[in-house]
UniProtKB/TrEMBL annotation:
Region ranges (Disordered): 215-245, 500-586
Name this protein carries in UniProt: BRCT domain-containing protein
Signal sequence residues: none
Coiled coil: none
Start and end residues of each BRCT domain: 9-107, 107-198, 347-419
GO biological process entries: DNA double-strand break attachment to nuclear envelope; double-strand break repair
Any one cellular-component term (Gene Ontology): nucleus
Amino acid sequence: MEDTAMMDASQNLFGELTFTIIPNSLSEERQQQLADNITTNGGILHSFDASLGKIEAIKEITHIISTTSDFPDYYNALDLFIHIVKPNWIDDSLKTGKAKNPRTYSPDPALFMNDVIICCGDIPEGDKEAIAGGVLATGGQYTPALSKQITHVVALTMEDPRCQLAVSKRLHCLFVLPHWFDDCLRVGRRISERPYLLPNPEILNVTAGAIPATRTSPQIRDATNPDPSNDGLPPTPPTHMEPPRSIKAFDQKKVKLGQDLQLSENLKGVITGLISASGGEVTSDLDEAQIYVCNYRDGPDYIEASQADKHVGNLSWLYYLIIHDVWTNPMRRMMHYPRPRDGIPGFKGFKISISSYTGEARVYLENLIKASGAEFTKTFKQDNTHLITAHKQSEKCEAAGEWGVHIVNHLWLEDSYAKCKEQTLTDAKYTFFPSRTNLGEILGQTEIDRSAVEKMFFSKTRKLKSSKGIVQQDTAPGSGFSNARLANELGDFATPLAKRRLEGKENETPTVPGSRGAKDRALSKLHESATDIAKFEKEMKRKGGVVHGGRRDKDAGVEDKSKKNKSRDSITSKRSIDEVDDDECPTEDDVVVAEPANRNKKAKKGTLTPIKFRMLISKDERWLNNLEKESKDKARMRELGLFITEDFKKVDLLCAPKVVRTKKFVSALACGPTVVASSYLDFALKHNKLPPPEKHLLEDKDFEKTHGIDLADALPRARLNQKRLLKDWTIYCSQNVNGGFDTFKDIITANGGQCTMWKGKGINNATASKRKIDKSNGVSQNQEEDEGDVLYLISEATSSEFANWAKFRALAKKHDMIPRIVKSEWLLHVAMSQRIHWDPEWELDEEVIKKEANQ
């Protein structure tokens, strides 16, 4: 009897629930599997007609199964409090024998962690609580125990017991530092795990090279220009681009083309023919049309179509539908929705340039800047107001710091455009750049804010049923709660979550409502949660959250005062930066002399303090995990005339707690800087003035004794060398050298040489030539030991390199030069002592390595 009762309960898991399945991206086999699981467990399934694209009898549905939010009835379903869940909600509910929380399976893009299941290792309890609350609030799941469903294990090292257990069980999951989750919350998007992956996370590698470029974000493909060229249209509708089960774009639909498109009769005929061939029809009657296409968010037709909940998009969106012949929401991509004719309020007068974006990403941002009403400038000058960048490792970012230009990520531009309102720069997520991350990877993930557009460009009266069936008037869009707004509020993060659990019952799995009571209980539950949501929003407004806690600045919600002074006074460095093809690797050629910007008569009289010193800091950890303090301290130093830079090619002061052999420290020595101890910064920050550098010179007797290098002797040589110590040198470096090829390449190029990666291939194309020593210049006295005809290869003492060594010797012989295969110690000694020197102990030899291996 007991077994029978359990079986009946299991088979009635979805009792009183009514489903429909959106077919996009689902195979017929998967659809059939889901249908069988629903019906055999007591659920009722309503079939979906892909040709119509609409859900029939939507008011009878309690759950919609869909892989994405990109289907026509999405917003309508949210307004009706219908649960929208991914297909694995069915699978996981059946595995556990009870209905799972629908919110953690929502395809809403605002819930950016909805595919993440996190388990924490041996990290502080406060961090565990913050991660648990944060992942639940952003659509993911948290579990204290390892399981096969885990996607991420958060730990500090791979020696963590949880990591070891996961490896032994061969679980398919990623091992990441807690910093990854924190940084995801700070930008409000799921960023790449690559820089945070254990056992060797890039963000902890001080010698890591340039931030890698990213592939074109799929969110902006075919959506970079609101006014596309007409030659992009196919002569005939494409076939078999999407499976026949997908929602067709034009099947049994009528389209009206707006007057502001200003189409020629020829082009209009082409578009009409393509729509007709895809099963649609072009009409001049807006009342009978389901789709309205226009350029701008104005005019009676735009307002009427929007108020009637018709699908409104621009020409770029129409072309997308024609090319792919599958329906997509025009608000999903920025450049698919009509643009505001006068731009975003507050953007007129802005001059915006971009850095570190190339290809389609660059085109997308250029057009978004123009659509917002600002001026896009290819050349970066002093009169620019904003610089939008994917990371801060660029020449433009350094110049922006000097000139006082706002440096922001693209989220500021996207959010301003989406919400129809300029977003305040005091919001930390717009000025945050995760270490070792190219934010271009999350470009285009922001969607148009439906309620904001409605409020600004058209208003309408919508009828919503209350829990008692009474018709209520909602005349202020966005003023009441809806599932759409709830998801948006919880998903739109600007700062890390508080290090505590959210109050309420977020962690509990709710009971599944019945078919008739579903909407009533959902609405009631939503109103009960209003207090918790308000508390959560209050937490999110705290500056830095609790992780980086503190009270919100008094002026946090106030319009940025700098907008009142868009014209800036000239400072000592007058230049502009032209965009290059590869902005990832700016060169000195990017900097050219430019005329100073015209001064505004109303501008402030005070000017930015001229730069007295450029300082590079290495291994000083005073700002570790405290970006807010770092930003404030650097700003204070800049006001005193000290510019803290990451560019080791232009350094006056080099600061470190002791002499270190990092890439930045060693490379910067070529500039002949004054090397000061960390006490220099301590004094400056304490007394708010710059001390004489000679009173804080760095001394490190232990380093001198261990390595035989005295900086007091090396620095005068560096100033004499003028970055030419290795001029005309070509030094080869193994790709497997410890520390990375890029590290040694930067050190060599900082000293005027050329570094080439040696893979043991292409001997015929490799170059080498004897060096001519110019005795007429001062640097020659530091090159006295240069034999001129020696060719160097920096490698590792391992037998796997032997084959490459033999080929290198062949290269040297071909060019009549002496091969010398050396440890990296040789280069470090040369660069730090700033003179050419040779010691036989640096040479690598096969016989010696074999003997050492056999001992």
